[in-house]
Every structure is written in structure tokens, then in C-alpha cells.
Amino acid sequence: MSDKKKTTTGAEPAAGLLPGLKSEVGRKGYISGETMAAVAGQAGLPLNSVYGVASFYAYLPVSPVGKNVIKVCNCLPCDMKDVPAVVDGIRREIAIGPGQTTPDGKFTLELVSCIGACDQAPAMMINDKLYGDLTAEKIAGILKSY
Amino acid sequence: MAEKRIVLGNCGIVDPQDIGSYLKAGGFKAYEKARRMKPKAIVEEVKKSGLTGRGGAGFSCGLKWEMALNAKGGQKYLICNADEGEVGAFKDKYILSRDPFGLIEGMLIAGMAIGARLAYIYLRNEYHSLNSLLVSAIEQARAKGYLKETDIQVFEGAGAYVCGEESALMNSIEGQRGESRYKPPYPAYRGLWDMPTIINNVETLMNIPHIINKGSGWFSAMGKGRSKGSKVFSVSGDVSRPGVYELEMGSLLKELVVDLAGAAEIKAVQIGGATGNIIPGYMTDTPLSHETFLGSGAVVVFNSTRDIIDIVYSDMRFLNEESCGKCTPCREGTEVMLEILGRLRQGDGHERDINSLEELARVMAAASLCGLGQAAAVPVLDSLRYFYNEYIDRIGQSHFLRSYLGGEMAELKEGIR
Question: Using a CB-CB distance cutoff of 8 angstroms, which residues of chain B are in contact with residue A116?
Fold first, then answer.
């Protein structure tokens, strides 16, 4: 049995929700309560549907994040190449741990699921840019370039 | 055995930014040929080739297409699953970044075969940097007039492993939480917007132009049993040459991890990502195929310095994080397994933990809604099968630690008895 209610073509109110929320993240870095309410109003959806979608996905933050989001891969192939050393390397440079944002709002650090750079482990992304084969020296240089 | 580069044949040869170089390499000949064929004939050719889904499930591609071709629906959709989120998988990224035109050609033929006017490439958020390359490739193909029958759009995900599961993927495009749906109905009958929909992995679609050009007989002559053609693997972990390799189906695991990737002192190998089988190093003579081990082709190698419980714990941490939460066996099962494995890892295990893991595994495999929960316990069960002693050792150490730290002497005695 299908757990979907409607059977129309392409005209569902939620169509386009994901690209819309993604471009909001591109503009402001996160999706505020006001934005969610506005999006819900425009699409004719209840607010909790929009919140439900936004909060489901890892890259749709619903609270403010730093200007640059550092995503350190925390999955098996990277973990085998010492993720804690990467996190420590970042901590030494900008004094934040996973889930934290620097006081100046420049960086947020997150541990994330596999980013598909297992051949360059340990790896991280800053915003959409990938950095692989990380070492403590490399991390310092990378962070200084932001 | 040397590599057999078919799917990867154009990677590194053609310029991914220039359709001219793809045409020079013989590109879009299969498309032209398919245009002169009836949809049914295309489907028949793919069916006869024995091509199976390369994303992990291994279902017959031609049979799936046939269902969609015969399904009734005003609009039909094709989706290329480029939501490669499996732990240790990076083969699709390799393909997308080096041969986007090969994928487009495969998609256009698939679109003609099933009668899809619109096709999506569902690209994972983490591969955003490839978005503009794909869009440019699509636009170049459009300018050459190749997109008349089927339009192609890139749809980007927002960070959710479970969206690689086909029904969750469709929910995601529909603007919903990426939760799995109950099946049946299968997507080939009722998929995106409840219309007949075919979802194929990047690598599956990359095979299509070759099958149309060279014929199903050429394709089915490669491989073993019901595993035809070649398979692309991404190898990482304790190897000196991590990377993407393509081998004929049925090649031995050691040809991949030892000869090509340069592994030594192998303790274990995990094949197919976080839900994949873990097999011991002495089994590297095993052929790689649907009948044995394959999954999506993500291969992670562990040498003798690695701790099996650490490995299984890391897999479970990922699956627990990425469980969509819709069905109870997966949502709660991964949670409890993570708790147990975490205790074992830290030296706080009990004999009863092994029973709990096995019992949970049975329930999760039987009652979970989609592949994530159904297969979440695979590495746990494999590690218990092949590395049982490590669990027993860890439980013994746990007893010692607890007694050494003062207390629970009774339990230590229980353990010895």
C-alpha cells in the first residue's frame, strides 16, 4: 500500500521546496523561523512541514552558522586516518570543537557523514571546497586562507 | 589481472568540458543508433545483455525498464541516482567528473526506451562542485539537439545518505523529508509524483551506450553467472594505492585489493559500504559478483593493526546517524546496537551483549522498511561470524577492568564460569 496521499502530476505544493531552501542557505547560511513561515505561507503548507523538511537534511541548518562551515568527514576510511588529530589541528588554530562556532562568526566546525573522498582520507570540506590528505600543517595553511 | 576499462573507458581521455572531444571519441553513436530502434527493441537488448543495477541491489536493468515501458501513466520519469553516500564509495564522483557526456548519452537512451520526457540527475549535496560541470554538459548536448526526446535536469540533494534509497530519493525531489516509502507499489509502476519512474545508478547508465553500440552478446560474454559485464570499485583504507578501478565481474578480491590497490597484511575487507559484508583476509580468493560480495563497489581494507569492534562501531555510528527514523526497527535498532558496540569498545561488555546483537539483527533484517535497516546489522553479524574471539576477548577484558576498578567481582566469576 502506498503511504502517499495524492496522485497528481507535478503540482504538489512541496515541489521546489528543497531547491528553495537550499538557495536560502546559500544566501544567509541558515533557514530562519521567519523564512520557514514565509515559505510555508507561499506554498500553502503548514509550518511544521517546512520545518520537518529543513530539519531532516544535514545541509539545511535551522539555526545560525559561521560564515564558513568546516565539515570534517567522520566515517570509517577517514576515521582510520585519525579524525581526532584533524579536529585537534583545527582546535589549535581557531579554538573551537565540533558543533561550535568561533566568537567572530567566521567558522563553524561540524563532523559529517562520508563526503566521498575516502581515497584522500582524512578529508574535510569548507563550504563546497574539498581538502584531502590533511595534516596539521596543511590545516593551519587552509584555515589561514579564509 | 589487468583492469578492464569499459565504463571508465573515456575517463581521462575525453575533455569533460567539451562535447566535441566526446564526439571525436565516438560519442552519441549509440544514441543515434537507439533513435532508429523501437523502445521495445532497446529494452530487449538491455534485457538480453544481463546488465544489473550497479548501485548495490543488482536487479535486472532491462526487466525494470520493461515494467516502466509497459506501465500506464501520463508522464514517465527517469532518475539517475548520483547520491553516492555509501561509506567508502567515490566511483560515481570519479565518473561524473571525467565523463559527464557518457552519462548523458546513457540517460537519453534510457529515456527513449521507457518514454520519459523528463530525467533528473539526483546529485548529492557533497558533490555540489560537479553541478556546474554537469549543467554545462547538458547544455552542450542540448545545443547539439540531443535533448529533443528527453530533457535532463540536475537536482541537488541536501545531505542525507538515505536519499540514495530510491523511494526516499523521490520523496526528496517531491520536497518532502527523505524517508523511505512502503513497497509495493514499485517505482517502475508508481514512483515520482506517483508516475512510472526508473531510477538507475550512474554506473548502470554508463553501460548503456556500450551495450547499444556493441550488442548484448558482447556484454553478456563478460562476467560470471548472472553477474555480467564489468564493475567499478572504489578502494580505500589500508592500501598504498587507493582509488577507482574497473574489473570484469567475477574477478578475485585479491586482484583488486592486492594487485591493483596494493594492500598488505590484510585482516579484513568490507565490501559495499557501512552495510556491506566484512570478510577476513584469508578469503581474498573470493570472486566479486552479485552471487558473492559486491554491493555498490565500495571496498575498504583493514590491516592487522585494526580492531574489528572499532570498525563495526564506526559503521553503526554512521547508520544510526543516517537512519531516516521512519520505521522503529531501524531507528531504535541502530541506536541500541550503537550503545552495545560503544560499551564493548570502551571495555564495558557483557556475555549477554552478543545475544542482544544477534536478536536485534534478526528483527531489523526482517522488519525494517528499506535496505538501510535491513542490512544495518550485516557487518555486526559478519564480525561475530569471523571474529568472534575478538568479542569474547573484549568481554573478558571488560570483566577485568570492572573488577580492577573495584566492584562487580561477582560478574567476573560469572564470566569465568
Answer: 84-85, 89-90, 93, 124, 126-127
Spans of all domains in chain B: 19-221, 224-303, 308-416
- Residues in chain A with CB shorter than 8 Å from the CB of B194 are 2, 4, 6-9
Q: In what order do the strands lie in the sheet with B298-303?
A: B243-248, B230-237, B298-303, B266-271, B277-280
CA distances from B331 to B23, B178, B299, B337, B373 (A): 48, 14, 26, 10, 8
Residue B132, class by beta-carbon neighbours within 10 Å (0-12 exposed, 13-18 middle, 19+ buried)?
Answer: exposed
**Rounded to whole angstroms, how far apart are CA atoms B198 and B109?**
13
pLDDT digits (tens, 9 = 90+) for A6-18: 434 445 778 889 9
**Residues of A whose CB is below 8 A from B190:** 2
Instruction: Tell me the sheet residues that pair with A110.
Output: A71
CATH architecture under which domain B19-221 falls: 3-Layer(aba) Sandwich (3.40)
Has domain B224-303 been given CATH number 3.30.360.10?
no
| Residue B300 forms contact with A (CB below 8 Å) | yes
Nearest to B61 by CA among B71, B73, B49, B72: B49
What residues in A contact B74, CB-CB < 8 Å?
9
Of B390, B6, B371, B358, nearest to B169 (Cα)?
A: B371
Q: Which of B180, B126, B154, B173 is nearest to A17 (CA)?
A: B173
The Cα B229–Cα B248 span in angstroms is 6
Q: Which residue has the cell 526526446?
A: B149
User: Could you give the ipTM of this predicted complex?
Assistant: 0.93
How do residues A24-53 score in pLDDT, each as one tens digit?
Answer: 999 999 999 999 999 999 999 999 999 999
Say if B329 is an interface residue toward chain A (CB within 8 Å). Answer: no
Segment B266-286 mean pLDDT: 97
Residue B181 contacts A where some CB pair is shorter than 8 Å: yes
CATH architecture of B308-416: Up-down Bundle (1.20)
Nearest CA in chain B to A16: B175
* CATH, range A7-64: 1.10.10.1590
pTM over 0.80: yes
Topology of the domain comprising A68-144 = Glutaredoxin (3.40.30)
CB B349 within 8 A of CB B408: no
Of B296, B253, B290, the closest CA to residue B273 belongs to B296
- Tell how far CA B95 is from the center of its chain: 14
Query: DSSP assignment, residue B255?
Result: I
* Residues B359, B361, B362: CA angle, nearest 5 degrees: 70
Tell me whether B156 touches chain A (CB under 8 Å). Answer: yes
d(CA A50, CA B176): 8
Please, what sign has the CA dihedral across residues A100, B123, A79, A58?
positive
CA distance B270 to B320: 18
